[in-house]
Design a protein that fits this description.
This protein is an alpha/beta fold. The protein is built from 13 helices and 10 strands. Helix 1 crosses helix 7, helix 2 crosses helix 4 and helix 2 crosses helix 7. The chain is globular and about 50 Å long.
Length: about 300
């Protein structure tokens, strides 16, 4: 799917009253886009507001449904509460407790199942049998366009932008960001970042198709499954892929807390952790996509 700039602008405008124009923080030459400051602690609210507000009123009032390991679930629950509609989220039974508790606190109904069963639920498109309006957590066109609002903000705040690093799970965020920045300046490089504990897209492009790696990473927000649509979309939009060793990712979280006074979860720290692979040169921004880290894990990493 190739996003046109007007679609991105319209989606960003729908979401604008409900989301933050997040700052770009410069720490010793490293520029960070702090999406961890958004409501619910991640970029996901951009896309969910854009997608929910694009629905026909009658369909939206029936309620919202999504599937997520955590951040999309929190975003969907927050959007539903803001709009005054019901919400259900399908979550793996391994979902981090703070994210599960957050969903409950926001008034949504979680439906937990084993990861394999959840992936089958997605493969079989079981949401088509549901009465609620399903918003795909990384494949919905309006959701992707809403994430593109982040790219528009970068173009406004960093007019000499050369390169942007984005953590990648299912690819919704990087698709929106790439669609926005490349529509304005095709020379801007978009770099996708994953952990070597779940290098889904590196393996998928090497294999030429579907792969099913087992997640072994603290970046649980990037452990979305392969889809054919995302495979085609990311092939056209992402210029380079970087893989961060898991020990480097674990070190990046306390590093961010110490240097930038920023709390990032595993997925949120990925792009920052990859900056050292680029070295000095182009004007680069790393997206800190979320900050919903389990407090016990944060304490462990800070004390290690």
């Amino acid at each position: 799917m190739a996003l046109d700039l007007e679609t991105v602008r319209a989606a960003a405008e729908r979401a604008r009253p409900h989301v933050l124009h997040t700052p770009v923080l410069d720490i010793g030459g490293a520029r960070l886009k702090l999406e961890c400051l958004q409501p619910t602690g991640s970029f996901k609210v951009r896309g969910f507001f854009a997608a929910a507000l694009a629905l026909p009123e009658e369909k939206r009032q029936a309620g919202l449904l999504t599937v997520s390991a955590g951040n999309a679930a929190l975003a969907c629950a927050h959007v539903a509460r803001t709009l005054g509609v019901p919400c259900q989220v399908v979550m793996p039974d391994t979902a981090a407790r703070p994210k599960l508790e957050g969903v409950l606190r926001l008034g949504a109904q979680p439906r937990q199942m084993p990861r394999a069963e959840m992936l089958d639920w997605m493969d079989q498109r079981m949401w088509e049998w549901e009465p609620l309006a399903f918003i795909h957590p990384f494949g919905d066109e309006q959701l992707i366009a809403g994430h593109g609002g982040l790219g528009l903000e970068l173009l406004d705040d960093v007019p000499d932008l050369d390169c942007v690093l984005v953590p990648v799970g299912g690819g919704g965020l990087i698709s929106g960001v790439a669609g926005a920045v490349k529509a304005r300046n095709p020379r801007i490089r978009v770099i996708g970042v994953q952990s070597d504990g779940y290098p889904l897209w590196r393996e998928a492009y090497a294999a030429g198709g579907r792969v099913t790696p087992t997640p072994q990473t603290i970046a649980d927000g990037t452990t979305a499954p392969w889809t054919e649509a995302a495979h085609a979309r990311l092939r056209d939009l992402v210029d380079t892929w970087l893989t961060v060793p898991e020990p480097r990712l674990r070190a990046a979280i306390p590093e961010l807390a110490s240097r930038a006074k920023v709390v990032a979860e595993g997925a949120g720290a990925l792009a920052y952790a990859a900056l050292e692979q680029l070295g000095p040169g182009p004007v680069t921004v790393a997206v800190v996509s979320g900050g919903n880290i389990d407090p016990a894990l944060l304490a462990e990493l800070l004390s290690s």
